[in-house]
Amino acid sequence: MGRYWTIAVFSTIYFIGMCTLTMSASIPALKPAQCVDSVCPSATPYQYAVFFFGLYLIALGTGGIKPCVSSFGADQFDDTDPEERVKKGSFFNWFYFSINIGALISSSLIVWIQDNAGWGIGFGIPAVFMGIAIVSFFSGSYLYRFQKPGGSPVTRMCQVLVASCHKWNLTVPSDSSHLYETSDKSSAIEGSRKLLHTDELKCLDKAAVVSEAESKTGDYSNSWKLCTVTQVEELKILIRMFPIWATGIVFSAVYAQMSTMFVEQGMVMDTSIGSFTIPAASLSTFDVISVIFWVPVYDKVLVPIARKVTGQGRGFSELQRMGIGLFISVFCMAAAAVVEIKRLQLARELGLVDENVAVPMSIFWQIPQYFLLGAAEVFTFIGQLEFFYDQSPDAMRSLCSALSLLTTALGNYLSSFILTVVTSLTTRGGNPGWIPDNLNKGHLDYFYWLLAGLSFANMVVYVFCAKIFKSKKAS
C-alpha cells in the first residue's frame, strides 16, 4: 500500500476504535448499570463485545501507524543531501519529543478529566484530536515526498530462501558480477536502490546464481527460482541487523520496570505531600518529563559538542547513541536498587518488616531512576528509530521500524519471564522470596541488581555486535 495509504487507512481504523470506546462509555445501553451502594452490576456480553471491539481496533490502528509515521516523516529528507541528512537526525529527536508531549498531557490532564468528568469525555477528547490529526495529515498531502511501494518484503525474503534451497547444489561463482542483477540503473524492486554484493552469507547467494537452464531459455522472470543480488542483499542486511535488534529486547525489559516494579516499590513508600496523596503510578510522568528535557539538550547541546569531537554531522552514530543508552540503563537499575536498600534498611530500623505497610521514605527518592530511564530512552529508542531507518533497505523501512518497535513487546514478555523464574527459584523451601506481597520482607533490590547485571552483560554483547556490524552499501 505504501506508507502514506497505510497511515491513512490505519489512522481511520484507530479513529473508529476511539469513537467506539467513547460510545461504550457514554451511551447507557453500551455501558454497565450504575452501582447501587457497593453492588456493581456486571457488563453484559454485548457491552463487553463493543468495549473490546473498540480496544482491538485501536491496537490494530496503532500497529499500522507507528512503524510508518516515523519512516514516512524521514522520507521527506533527501539522503543524497548532506544538510538534509543532518536534519533527518533532528527529525527523529523532535518526533519522539512530540510523542512524549502527548503522553504528558494524556497521563495528567486527560486522566484528571476521566476521574472527575467521566470516561465518556475522557475518551471523547482523544477521539476528537485523532480526527483533527487525520485531517491535518491529509491537508499536507500536496507537500509530501512519496516513495513507491516495493511490494511485500516478507514475500521477497521467502523467495530468496526458496531459491537458495532450490539451487543448493550449484556453486557460487567467485566473481560476483556473474550473479544475476538487472541491467537497468534502477533496481527491480520499486522504490529501492540497487545494493552492492557483500561476501557474507554466501549460501544465500545461490538464489542469484543463473542455472544452465535459465541461461539457455533466457527466462529470468520466476523470482521463486532466481533472485537479484539486491533482493539477496536485503535479506543479508536483516540478518546482520538481528544481533543489534536482539539487544534492544533486554533494554525494553528494563524499561518495562517503569510500569511494574517501580510502581510496586512506590506503593510501599510515603506518597503524601501534606494532605495530597500522589498515586505511585503517576511518577512515570517524571520519565516523560525527563525525555522532554533530554531531547532538546541532546539535539542543541550534546550533538554540537560531539560533532566537533567526532567530525560526524549527527554528532554520534546510531550505534554509538544506542550504546550510550544501554550504558545509562545499568545506572538506572543501580539507582533503583540503592533506593530499595535504603527503604528496606528503614523498614528494619522501624520494625516494619512483618507489616505490609508503607515505609516513611518519600516516593520522590524514585525520581533519579525515572530520570535516568528517560535519558536512556532518548539515546536508545530514538537511536533505534534512526538505525533501523538508515540501515534498512529502501523498500523495507517500515518493516524494520516495526521490528524495532517489536522489542518493546518482547521486552515486556522477557520481564514477565524473568519475574516468574525469580519468584519460582526464591520461594523454594517456604522462603518469602525476593518479591513477596509484603515487599518489606523481600529483596526487590536483588531483583534490580539482577537486571543491572543483565543490562551490563547486554551492553557488552552489544558493543561486540556493533564493532562487527557492517553498514549497507547502495550503488
TrEMBL record:
Q: Which organism is it from?
A: Olea europaea subsp. europaea
Q: Which family does it belong to?
A: Belongs to the major facilitator superfamily. Phosphate:H(+) symporter (TC 2.A.1.9) family. Belongs to the major facilitator superfamily. Proton-dependent oligopeptide transporter (POT/PTR) (TC 2.A.17) family.
Keywords, A to Z?
A: Membrane, Transmembrane, Transmembrane helix, Transport
Q: How does this protein sit in the membrane?
A: Multi-pass membrane protein
Q: Which residues cross the membrane?
A: 7-26, 46-65, 94-113, 119-144, 237-256, 276-298, 319-339, 370-389, 401-426, 446-469
Q: Please name the GO terms of the biological process aspect recorded for this protein, alphabetically.
A: oligopeptide transport
Q: What is this protein called?
A: NRT1 PTR FAMILY -like
A single Gene Ontology MF term assigned here is:
transmembrane transporter activity
Q: What is its main location?
A: membrane
